[in-house]
Amino acid sequence: MAPLTPAVPAAAVPAAAPPAGRQGRARRVRVWRGVVLAAAALYFLTPLITSFVFTVNDPVRGFTLDAYLEIFSAEGFVQSLLLSLGLAAATIVVVLLLTLPAMLAVRLSAPRLRPVLEVICTLPLVVPPITFVAGISTVLRWGPDHLAATPFYQTIIAVQNPAFPAVLVIAYVVLALPFVYRSLDAGLGAIDVRTLVEAARNCGASWPHVLLRVIIPNLRAGLASASFLTLALVLGEYTVARLLGYQPFPVWIVTISGSNAAMSVAVSIFSLLFAWLLLLVLSTAGTRKRSGS
Amino acid sequence: MNGARVEFRGLRRTFGATVALDGLDLTVEPGTLIALLGPSGCGKTTALRCVAGFEHPDAGAVLLDGKDITRVPANRRDAGMVFQSYSLFPNLNVYDNVAFGLRVRKVPAAKRRARAAELLELVGLPAHGERYPHQLSGGQQQRVALARALALEPRVLLLDEPLSALDAKVRVALREEIRRLQLSLGITTIFVTHDQEEALSVADQVAVLRSGRLEQVGAPAEVYDRPATPFVAEFVGTMNRLPGRLDGQEVEVAGQRLPVHGETPGTPEVDVLVRPETVLVTAAYDGEAVVLTSSFRGASVRLLLRTDDGTELLADLPAHDAARLAPGQRAGFRLVQRPVLVGPRTTVSPPATATAAAD
Ligand SMILES: Nc1ncnc2c1ncn2[C@@H]1O[C@H](COP(=O)(O)OP(=O)(O)O)[C@@H](O)[C@H]1O
Ligand SMILES: [Mg+2]
């Protein structure tokens, strides 16, 4: 989790700056904006730069990029990274497929259930990860041997497949619910869902058509931010994966960092930059269409 | 494009304890424009949504050309709708908004474009095809919404207060245009509004609703001149309530005897409903009333008078006759000799409430 945390606030700082008003005020606002930006930059960049210097500065040989080159040849790097990306993609798809139709249904035909849905989706925030993992492992140990031939037992085995532990996807979907709910709720709040749906229905559109051609295009920003937060969560999640005994990227970083100090820091910087890049791609994909119009 | 006959048969719809529609019966003849008129919350939108298929009645049926469509899903109904709030798809430009329904029906692209261009021409926006909804004014957005509703050549056009978000000038211009379009296309149109002036000026028929029931339906002049009930009388146009006394088929009011039209309540003490334009005012030093306020409305002036027995009433008169009737002056008045409606005596209600309901 640690290397990813700064990525989101740092990206949000320029956007949060207030719009300028009159001449004199505008100047003051600009100055303060600079001060805030500088302070935030100092806060985020100092540890980054010192870490970077530490990784490239060998006391004996001076400047060297060896630590970074070592990452790519280290055992398990590609595998764990691909696993994390696969888990993130699966989690995003599943969580969106679950929440979006549910939220639409509640908004359109059962508005009184909205607080209930909200509470359910926010609940994972208040359950400590340790409790959560303890619960999951208890459930996974359920299958007694005499059930070995049943589909239930086989499902439990299948979700624990170390090549692609679906049980982690299930866990991450639950953990991502609060963030996804918030993002989509804000997105749906910004458009008049009911009127748009009815206008489309009135033009002869079937429900899938309404969803694909009307809701999703107008919910692009909300969907992007939901995916964005889910991606950040999955790329940084350590507790659940570690305690269930899998090795996605964050767990791999911790494992590898014991052996080589310079390399462990290099891995952290690498993962930070990598996550940044992914988030950047996602967020531009979400906003490009709107500014282009 | 030909209009269909629309029939509401005993429509009933409740939301919890609220009764939105309480047995609505109404027939709309093919090719006519009917205005559903009534105060806010009387069930106009609900009735319209039952035709569009967004609302399902608890009882009763909606018939289109004699065919029961109550259970037909919204996307298979032959009705185009324009919504009260802006409803264009924000992600699509004007062309694509208008052509949305054609695209759903898999009409080839070239034909779609031609049809959209034709419709935009029809609503007076031929050069706006490439714009996005947020680049249009409110009036333009509603024109595009109208074009979109007409794109599939529906046989019924549903308008749910399409002009209520627009400013007065645009509102008048656009309602004239809607009427012109409706006449040239011959499409059956249901126009929901709470604005009686709007209803009277564009509709073939005006249906006045009250608490989910039909109160009266008729041509605009009929509803205005011969309101069936005191409610209609006061909702359509402005009405004075003057205390009167029933005497056979006549009523004594303000020293005059007028014939009574419509039902009479059981008691002899009644309220007589009188339109401001049927109150003839003359300046007179020994008149029985005093002018309280005078508001200039261009061609006419509306006076608020108080008689010596404390009754207040409104009177409309041509502006050039009102020069000597400044506030504080005494005046005499007379009622035009024609049949009047009477209602049960209420506690003395100042005409100001009637004005508020009508404006
Ligand atoms: N979806 C709904 N849920 C609860 N009450 C509703 C709903 N739709 C309409 N109503 C109620 O039904 C009544 C009639 O509403 P409506 O048809 O919208 O009135 P109008 O369009 O004439 O102003 C109102 O009292 C309104 O509050
Ligand atoms: Mg309404």
TrEMBL record, chain A:
<comment type="similarity">
    <text>Belongs to the binding-protein-dependent transport system permease family.</text>
</comment>
<feature type="transmembrane region" description="Helical">
    <location>
        <begin position="116"/>
        <end position="143"/>
    </location>
</feature>
<feature type="transmembrane region" description="Helical">
    <location>
        <begin position="31"/>
        <end position="56"/>
    </location>
</feature>
<keyword id="KW-0812">Transmembrane</keyword>
<keyword id="KW-0813">Transport</keyword>
<dbReference type="InterPro" id="IPR000515">
    <property type="entry name" value="MetI-like"/>
</dbReference>
<feature type="transmembrane region" description="Helical">
    <location>
        <begin position="76"/>
        <end position="104"/>
    </location>
</feature>
<dbReference type="InterPro" id="IPR035906">
    <property type="entry name" value="MetI-like_sf"/>
</dbReference>
<feature type="transmembrane region" description="Helical">
    <location>
        <begin position="221"/>
        <end position="241"/>
    </location>
</feature>
<keyword id="KW-0997">Cell inner membrane</keyword>
<dbReference type="GO" id="GO:0055085">
    <property type="term" value="P:transmembrane transport"/>
</dbReference>
<dbReference type="GO" id="GO:0005886">
    <property type="term" value="C:plasma membrane"/>
</dbReference>
<dbReference type="Pfam" id="PF00528">
    <property type="entry name" value="BPD_transp_1"/>
</dbReference>
<feature type="transmembrane region" description="Helical">
    <location>
        <begin position="261"/>
        <end position="282"/>
    </location>
</feature>
<feature type="domain" description="ABC transmembrane type-1">
    <location>
        <begin position="81"/>
        <end position="282"/>
    </location>
</feature>
<keyword id="KW-1003">Cell membrane</keyword>
<keyword id="KW-0472">Membrane</keyword>
<feature type="transmembrane region" description="Helical">
    <location>
        <begin position="163"/>
        <end position="181"/>
    </location>
</feature>
<keyword id="KW-1133">Transmembrane helix</keyword>
<protein>
    <submittedName>
        <fullName>ABC transporter permease</fullName>
    </submittedName>
</protein>
From TrEMBL, chain B:
<protein>
    <recommendedName>
        <fullName>ABC-type quaternary amine transporter</fullName>
        <ecNumber>7.6.2.9</ecNumber>
    </recommendedName>
</protein>
<dbReference type="GO" id="GO:0043190">
    <property type="term" value="C:ATP-binding cassette (ABC) transporter complex"/>
</dbReference>
<dbReference type="Pfam" id="PF08402">
    <property type="entry name" value="TOBE_2"/>
</dbReference>
<dbReference type="InterPro" id="IPR003593">
    <property type="entry name" value="AAA+_ATPase"/>
</dbReference>
<dbReference type="InterPro" id="IPR027417">
    <property type="entry name" value="P-loop_NTPase"/>
</dbReference>
<dbReference type="GO" id="GO:0015418">
    <property type="term" value="F:ABC-type quaternary ammonium compound transporting activity"/>
</dbReference>
<dbReference type="InterPro" id="IPR050093">
    <property type="entry name" value="ABC_SmlMolc_Importer"/>
</dbReference>
<dbReference type="InterPro" id="IPR013611">
    <property type="entry name" value="Transp-assoc_OB_typ2"/>
</dbReference>
<dbReference type="InterPro" id="IPR017871">
    <property type="entry name" value="ABC_transporter-like_CS"/>
</dbReference>
<feature type="domain" description="ABC transporter">
    <location>
        <begin position="6"/>
        <end position="236"/>
    </location>
</feature>
<keyword id="KW-0547">Nucleotide-binding</keyword>
<keyword id="KW-0813">Transport</keyword>
<keyword id="KW-0067">ATP-binding</keyword>
<dbReference type="GO" id="GO:0016887">
    <property type="term" value="F:ATP hydrolysis activity"/>
</dbReference>
<dbReference type="GO" id="GO:0005524">
    <property type="term" value="F:ATP binding"/>
</dbReference>
<dbReference type="InterPro" id="IPR003439">
    <property type="entry name" value="ABC_transporter-like_ATP-bd"/>
</dbReference>
<dbReference type="Pfam" id="PF00005">
    <property type="entry name" value="ABC_tran"/>
</dbReference>
<dbReference type="InterPro" id="IPR008995">
    <property type="entry name" value="Mo/tungstate-bd_C_term_dom"/>
</dbReference>
